[in-house]
Amino acid sequence: MSNLKEECGVFGIYAGETCDLASDVYCGLFSLQHRGQESCGIVINDDGLFTAYKDNGLVNDVFSPDRLAALGNGNIAVGHVRYGTTGGNARENVQPIVVNHIKGRMALAHNGNLVNSYELRSALELDGSIFHTTSDTEVISYIITKERLSAPTIEEAVNRAMNRIAGAYSLVMMSPQKLIAVRDENGFRPLCYGKTPDGKYVVASESCALDAVGATMIRDVEPGEIVIFDRSGVRSIRDHCGKRKPSLCVFEYIYFARPDSVIDGCNVHAARSRAGAFLALEHPVQADIVVGVPDSGIDAAIGYSKQSGIPYEMGFVKSKYIARTFIAPGQKSRESKVKLKLNPISETVRGKRVVLIDDSIVRGTTSARIVRLLREAGAKEVHMRISAPPFLNPCYYGTDIDSRENLIACSHTVKETAEIIGADSLGYLSVESVRKIARGMEEGGYCTACFSGEYPTEIPKETNKNRFERKISDSQ
Asked: What does the alpha-carbon distance between residue 42 and residue 78 come to, in Å, rounded to a whole number?
């Protein structure tokens, strides 16, 4: 069995009365498309009758107007966009997962990754459970379902399940009568909720999805909190709050989230701009222009420019129709997309000393290609600056870094890496500074394990997968 690890987007809406919710979920998922481009799904709940459709592909490809209309009306709905990093992008792994059991139906959408998925799944299989996917989301659904057999309510079943599951999970789920939002005790992945002018409650991975449906953000779901939306209104269970130090994945600010989103009280654009400013202080250089790699490098480039006084210029044109290379599974796919994704503006960079800002270097191949593009466009010098520290450790919470062997910073010095990617110099943001990029969180609250090796939970003893190789053995 190969555990499927994901960086995804979740969305849910509670209307109370039956109405057209498919269009709202579509808009919400479209705004979360940056969090995953492999597959998507929507489940509509019409007073206990679930209608679902999900498939591989982008939101606007999977959900035509006719397909949305076929979902019908409902009073509750959940949706999901997915990016799987290993093992299988087969249709059975597409979310939300719909479960039918003796205590009623349940639909579940999950962002994150369990650190004890392998142990839980093994125990469930030995107890007779049969799995249909390679996703740890199905493990969560099994645990909740088993607890529901004795729990008086679905929310209490979720509360009990949280005693057994560990790691990163932001969940949006629905029963026939309730919409439920859940965030793990560490708060690894973002989750927030808001309200539309006509009274619908909306839950999403990022606030940009609330904006897309006209909802005003109320607040973030707190780490460890369970929020329930039903005919009685909104209430929460806080039994798991405050049990662990908050550990939001700092890469949400650096790369994953949209710049217009607000996560745990901090605007993403502002955080990236601060990262660029810190980078300019730590790694100054004599140069003519600052250029950001679209899209997530642009905000940091603006911050670097303001702090250093070096003018910011638009150095690349990005195709609007190519998915992100970092979350394109498979190295060959990533490399080919770089060629189509970016085109340098020769008039901007020719004869110039360029400070090139990007959000990360993982394997180094993409960075080498981007530097080469600038050289070919006539750049005199290219000084690479990275708005994150070097990746040195695997991530067990859902980011596409699960092996040290393919991390360039693990086997090469900064100087060697600069030579490999063809840059005149290279500078990374320090771990100390990356912990201060979000205002209000300067005293902590981040997970920086992939940079520092300081994990906020126990790390899994067995994962039984390798994200970089994407293999499933014959014995599995």
From this structure: 6
- The domains found in the chain, sorted by start residue, are 9-244 (3.60.20.10), 262-452 (3.40.50.2020)
What's the DSSP call for residue 91? G
CA distances from 250 to 33, 341, 416, 436, 446 (A): 20, 26, 26, 10, 6
pLDDT above 70 covers what percent of the chain?
89
Burial annotation 180-209 (CB, 10 A radius, 16+ → b, else e): bbbbbbbbbbbbbbbbbeeebbbbbbbbbb
* Cα–Cα distance for residue pair 162/167, rounded to 1 Å: 10
* Candidate list 8, 27, 249, 450, residue with the active-site label: 8
Dihedral sign, CA of 255, 261, 263, 268?
positive
Q: Is the peptide bond before 295 cis (omega within 30 degrees of 0)?
A: yes
Q: Let me know how long the chain is.
A: 476
Q: CA-to-CA distance for 325 and 269, rounded, in angstroms?
A: 20
For residue 14, give both structure tokens.
């509670």
3-state secondary structure (DSSP) of residue 79:
strand
Side chain identity at residue 79, one-letter code: G
Q: Which tens digit of pLDDT belongs to each residue from 200-221?
A: 999 999 999 999 999 999 999 9
Long-range contacts of the stretch 255-260 (C-beta < 8 A, 24+): 255/296, 255/326, 255/359, 255/360, 255/388, 256/7, 256/34, 256/35, 257/190, 257/206, 258/31, 258/34, 258/206, 258/208, 259/295, 259/296, 259/299, 260/207, 260/208, 260/211
Work out the pLDDT band at 436, boundaries 50, 70, 90. Answer: very high
Active site residue 27: no
> d(Cα 268, Cα 295) in Å, to the nearest integer?
13
- Which has the higher per-residue pLDDT, 298 or 402? 298
More confident residue, 105 or 333: 105
pLDDT of residue 89: 62
Question: Would you say 331 and 322 are in contact if contact means Cβ atoms under 8 Å apart?
Answer: no
What count of Cα atoms within 13 Å lies in the side-chain half-sphere of residue 62? Answer: 26
